Amino acid sequence: MISFCLLFLWIPITSADPHSLKYLYTAVSGDTDFPEFMVVGLLDDQQFVHFGSNTKTLVNDAEWMNKTEKYYRELYTEPLINQYEGFKNLITFAKKQFNQTQSKGVHTIQNLYGCEWNDETELQDYFHHYGYDGEDFISLDMKTVRWITSVQQADTIKQKWDDNSKDLHYLKWYFTKECIDTLKKYVNFASSVLKKIVPPSVSLLQKTPSSPVTCHATGFYPSGVMVSWQKDGQEQHEDVLHGEILPNGDGTFQKSAHLTIDSEKWENNNYTCVVEHKENIIAIRLNQSVIKTNSVKPLETVPIIIGVGVVAVILLVSFIIARFIMWNRKSTASDDGSNPSMTQQNQMQLEVSLSLIKQERSREKRTFIEG
């Protein structure tokens, strides 16, 4: 199964824990081994279907989709092939607006859209966003049903799309009716999968003695998790870099938090990796004997698993990552304007995001240690 990562990712903030249906479209130009056009569908941040221009085939990635497979393929395969051409035109337009028509670098257009529904409160939300080279480009304001630009280069297409009243009426109907109805139907089909809880496996990793120590949680479901470092029972923010939540190839997720301090400092203080997921807290005290490195095999240790009630007394957790996303990306641009490297921080993210797609991700364990 092909797994997908987001170059840009936007997910609406809500007070509850809603179900979500999202579709991510990615068009790529330039010298790359990735397909020119890819689509992935996610239900509650789990990939359930994907399409690629290299095969022009819609592929099921979830067993519950067997209930709708024939209908889904017949309904969506042909439109996706047509949209392939539309996205190629859109990326050409964007390159022209950014004066990158002669660029040989890799450029991307991404479209993330979908809806959310809380089955307890019945609250709904909708989103429809485009990004170019990892930055916001243009998005649909669901209240006014008008397009909002994030950069001046999108002004021309905003005017064109705002003038298309037929499409705007369709989008309003799709999000408030069709998307929500489909989400409810899929939640029903996948109910047994969505209700499962798989606790994380937690490890402390370090490439070299001078590298940051990584608290790495993997193999958990659902995606809502908090990974933090504590010093003497207090959450540590200084010298800590939080990674994003990423999908594994088996429907589970992973997340890391990197602690950058001298070994003398952590040996003389009580530093603890704390992972909170659903009803469990897993805490591993930082000690040389429990760190997995490239050269030294750690002693066998058993992480402390603490019930939520006990944690409230002995662990101070500042915040819980539930259903939100904040992204703060640093980009390094090449001479021709392409973005060869991008980093993302503080992402829940679906918590979905959403780096170009790595087709080999499904066969990797993606441990922190590299050979």
Automatic annotation (TrEMBL):
Highest taxon above the source species: Eukaryota
Domain Ig-like: 200-291
SUPFAM superfamilies membership: Immunoglobulin (SSF48726), MHC antigen-recognition domain (SSF54452)
UniProt-listed InterPro entries: Ig-like_dom, Ig-like_dom_sf, Ig-like_fold, Ig_C1-set, MHC_class-I_related, MHC_I-like_Ag-recog, MHC_I-like_Ag-recog_sf, MHC_I/II-like_Ag-recog
CDD domains for this protein: IgC1_MHC_I_alpha3 (cd07698)
Keywords for this protein: Glycoprotein, Membrane, Signal, Transmembrane, Transmembrane helix
GO cellular component terms attached to this protein's record: external side of plasma membrane; extracellular space
Alphabetized SMART domains for the sequence: IGc1
Pfam families to which the protein is assigned, alphabetical: C1-set, MHC_I
Membrane-crossing segments per the record: 302-322
Signal sequence residues: 1-16
Entry's Gene Ontology BP terms: immune response
PANTHER family named in the record: MHC CLASS I ANTIGEN TRANSCRIPT VARIANT 1-RELATED, MHC CLASS I-RELATED
Family: Belongs to the MHC class I family.
Protein name from the UniProt record: Ig-like domain-containing protein
Organism, as annotated: Oncorhynchus tshawytscha (Chinook salmon)
Name of the gene encoding the protein in the UniProt record: LOC112233299
